[in-house]
Amino acid sequence: MVKNILKNPSIQLHSHRLIAIGFTLVLLLMGALTLVALYHLADLQKRLDTVVNEQNVKTDLISTMRLAARERAIALYRMSLTPDPFARDEEFLRFNQLAGDFAAARTRLLDMALSPAERTILEQQSRLSRMNRPLQDEVANLMLTGNTERAGQILLDRVIPLQNEVLAALDRLRALQTEVARHAAAEAGNAYRAAQLAMAGLGSTALSLGILIAVYVARRTASAEEALFQEKELAEVTLHSIGDAVITTDAGGRVDYLNPVAEQLTGWTVQEAKQQPLETVFRLIDGTSRESIDHPASHNPLDGRTLGLNHHTLLVRRDGQEFAITHSAAPIRNRAGESIGAVIAFHDVTEAKRLARQLSWQASHDALTGLANRREFERRLAELLEDARQRKQMHILLYLDLDQFKVVNDTCGHMAGDELLCQLATLIQARVRSQDTVARLGGDEFALLLESCALEHAFAIAEKLRHDIGDFRFVWEDKIFSCGVSIGLVPITLHSESLAALLSAADTACYAAKENGRHRVHVYRPDDSELARREGEMQWVLQINRAIEDGLLRLYYQPIMPAAPDDSRPGHFEILLRMVNGTGEAIPPMAFIPAAERYNLMATLDRWVVQNTFEWIASQDLSAQGYLDCCAINLSAHSLCDPDFLDFVINQFQRTGIRPEQICFEITESCAIANLSRARQFMSALWSMGCRFALDDFGSGMSSFAYLKNLPVDFLKIDGAFVRDMVDDPVDHAMVEAITRIGHVMGIQIIAEFVENEAIREKLRHLGVDYVQGYAIDQARPLAQFRMPAAQGEPGGSRTQADRPLPHPTPARPDAGPIHQGEVGPGRRTRTCT
């Protein structure tokens, strides 16, 4: 409308004519202006322009700072009210943006010429803002992490009072600006009155200049009108160019203007929408309840408020299409500060919300099968656990681990394995109720949550699943596969301890099902001895890791001496491993080694033993022991199969500087046979450096001696089971004799362990055994107390059975795995390779 008025030539001409007549009347009444009056007027105009412009800029900046400070507090308050995390994130972004607006306005204000009073108030405001800013950030972070109660308390108790002080400081600054402006206006009025007096006194001399002045003012007026027109054009072009939709209304809530984006989103053109009620053009509904929403600017001005809608608002276009939008509205004021309309800005967020929903789904579901993932499964499990405690309702957790799934992956590749998982996921989901949860926890592991299900019914479901999966045939190209499933069943009751305890129980029950033959269902019961054993081993795993971290592992040694009293060959010793408890009491290896083997901790223990033994040897002068040959260290099958262990050992030789000839590695016969290729590679590499090797527990796996031809073996260590009873058992005697003869034929020295008395030692000497180890020689001792026993024939060199201390027996367990660095003596069991 303003643009049309400015473009009307008749209106422009009428304006110029009125200005000319007015100046003529002034010239006739006042006479003429003198040069002095012109000077006064120009100076007055300059001063007024400077004061007005400077005060306007300062006032705008102070208003911007006050609005930003106030809106930051409102944003925090909104964050505390909304339960929607996405809405909270959007308010947080707005919170940070307002901080930037506040800082930018304050920087501009500080760059201007300020009075001491203004700077004092700004310094007070800055001090308050510095106190309040960390509290606001803390509140925002607490709200983002969900701790709204704590955030709200800080907001009410500290942030808002400090924010009110900041606003009060800005109000004082604005009041000071008003006072400065009033003072400047008064000075300008005095100057203007002085100029009037000058003009009245010299008016008669300025008559001749009146016409020139009238022409000059007319031209300036036309220039101002043109500038106003250009500013209006610029504003309209800007509104057309921005990405947000904009609607302006009058004081009665009728549409006055729409930019092109608003036209596109509403389906109304500017001409069609003009003077239409806002609710007709800008039709809003609640996305949840589908009820219509009346916009606050539809009937009344906004009363100075900047408003926004909830984040479930939908805009209904003229043709019925719906868009999700974000929205804000602010009042339009006249010079008197009265609200004469509103400007509404909104933005289409339909695609953003669709992507947010998609990301939310992906965050809670397995990408391959579409089932719930581990995170979502644990969330629902926690809900059922809470429900069981409150309502005393039983739910069931099923933990499924596929058997023989690796065969499909290894035979046909991962694409076939993925397809099998998808088909099995569909099969499992079809066997449960709609309210039950089926989840893929990773790899070939699935889990089910059966809500409000009795134990007997859950067991029937698990058995049905087991049969269906067992009967399922997977076809890939020309191959047909079948697979089984081991299922652990755990009741969820009010007595269930925690989420972690339920998951651990399910894993333990599933593992028990596998150990009992696979493809079966195992129901968890707290008094189950098998599960108790595995849980005990899990406790040992934690204790082993703690022992490694806290330095509770200890090295022991036991001598290995020549069997013949007059044998001048040097002896050596075997390194043994012990763990101590919190009171310093040694824990026998039989207590923790089986758990270490089952849960793949043996390689870690072996590395600890090798590193600390090498460092101990490097710190000793072992050449003082004239009859000392080398140190024997046991290695487990886990280390033998570890591709990085060889490099680790070589690195330890280089780091400590000890000679490879000082080390003899002991490997059990069964482990060497089971990993023959890897054993040959490992042993050959270190044997070529000078290390020696002993086959431990030889005879326990005597299927063939042929492999000895391919292994660099220096010692055969006869299994103690044959040595212990060889005096009374002719079969054991014959076994020891046979091993000794074959070993000597192959140029290998023989060591006999479990030599518990002199009678056994004498028998071994007659059979030609080279070395003996056991309590008849010496018991295991801490490496920190290292000393080798004197050879027989030397003073104190022959220790009898009665001389040695009684051993600490370690009870054998029939289900235990191989012993690592075990003590040779009564109670030690045969080592086997797993």
Description:
The structure is a single chain. This protein is α/β, with parallel strands linked by helices and 834 residues long. 53% of the residues lie in helices and 16% in strands. It is built from 26 helices and 24 strands. The chain has an 8-stranded mixed barrel with strand order 15-16-18-19-20-21-22-23, surrounded by 4 helices. Helix 3 packs antiparallel against helix 6 (148-202). The longest helix has 55 residues, at 148-202. The protein starts with a helix and ends in a 52-residue tail after the last strand. 31% of the residues are buried.
Overall geometry comes to elongated
The major β-sheet equals: 8 strands, mixed, barrel
User: Strands of the biggest beta sheet: in what spatial order?
Assistant: 15-16-18-19-20-21-22-23
Beta strand %: 15-25%
Query: What is the overall pLDDT average?
Result: 77
The N- to C-terminal Cα distance equals 92 Å
**What proportion of the residues is helical, as a percent range?**
40-55%
Supply Rg: 46 Å
Question: Short summary of the structure?
Answer:
Helices cover 53% and strands 16% of the residues.
Topology:
Blueprint: H1 2-7, H2 9-30, H3 35-81, H4 85-111, H5 116-144, H6 148-202, H7 207-241, E1 245-250, E2 255-258, H8 260-266, H9 270-273, H10 278-281, E3 283-286, E4 292-293, E5 313-316, E6 322-333, E7 339-348, H11 350-364, H12 374-391, E8 395-403, H13 405-412, H14 414-430, E9 437-442, E10 445-450, H15 455-471, E11 473-476, E12 479-482, E13 484-492, H16 499-515, E14 521-523, H17 529-550, E15 553-562, E16 571-580, E17 586-587, H18 589-598, H19 602-619, E18 628-634, H20 637-640, H21 645-656, E19 663-668, H22 669-674, H23 676-689, E20 692-698, E21 715-718, H24 720-724, H25 730-745, E22 749-752, H26 758-767, E23 771-772, E24 781-782
Parallel strand pairs: 13-14, 16-18, 18-19, 19-20, 20-21, 21-22, 22-23
Antiparallel strand pairs: 1-2, 1-7, 3-4, 3-5, 5-6, 6-7, 8-10, 8-13, 9-10, 11-12, 15-16, 15-23, 15-24, 16-17
Helix pairs in contact: 2-7, 3-4, 3-5, 3-6, 4-5, 5-6, 13-14, 16-17, 17-18, 19-21
